[in-house]
Design a protein that fits this description.
Elements (H helix, E strand, L loop, with lengths): L3 H15 L1 E10 L5 E26 L2 E15 H4 L7 E4 L2 E10 L6 E8 L7
Antiparallel strand pairs: 1-2, 1-4, 2-3, 3-6, 4-5, 5-6
Length: 125
């Protein structure tokens, strides 16, 4: 039997120690429920940024090229991630990232892992 209160305590302790506060924004909707260029505050949370490796394979004829692609993620408390929706944005190190998924780890309603995707605006820093 897993002690879920202890698991929540461990995450809270790590977030206090090394967590970073992230502010999420959401596109404001007009009268027709269409997103506008303005953004509104969607929520704040303290989380741990990490990256997951995934592999992309491209097959051309007899050869296959495989490259590793990094997927940025934020580990946080589930209760903090409840206010977020897919498509919300956050700025990290001058990059704008979009929320592409929120996973409830082990279905305990304690820990959430937020998947992000870098928004490419075509401008190099």
């Amino acid at each position: 039997m897993i002690n879920t209160k202890f698991e929540a305590y461990k995450l809270r302790r790590e977030l206090k120690r090394v967590g970073v506060e992230y502010e999420f924004k959401r596109a404001k909707l007009n009268a027709f429920k269409e997103p506008t260029s303005e953004s509104v505050h969607a929520g704040k949370l303290i989380g741990l940024y990490h990256e997951q490796n995934s592999h992309v394979s491209v097959t051309t004829g007899e050869t296959t090229q495989t490259r590793t692609k990094k997927t940025p993620m934020i580990l946080c408390l589930y209760e903090d991630a409840k206010t977020l929706k897919l498509g919300d944005t956050v700025k990290i190190n001058s990059k704008t990232l979009k929320v592409t998924g929120i996973v409830n780890i082990q279905e305990w309603n304690i820990i959430a892992d937020i998947s992000l995707e870098v928004i490419d605006d075509g401008v190099h820093d």
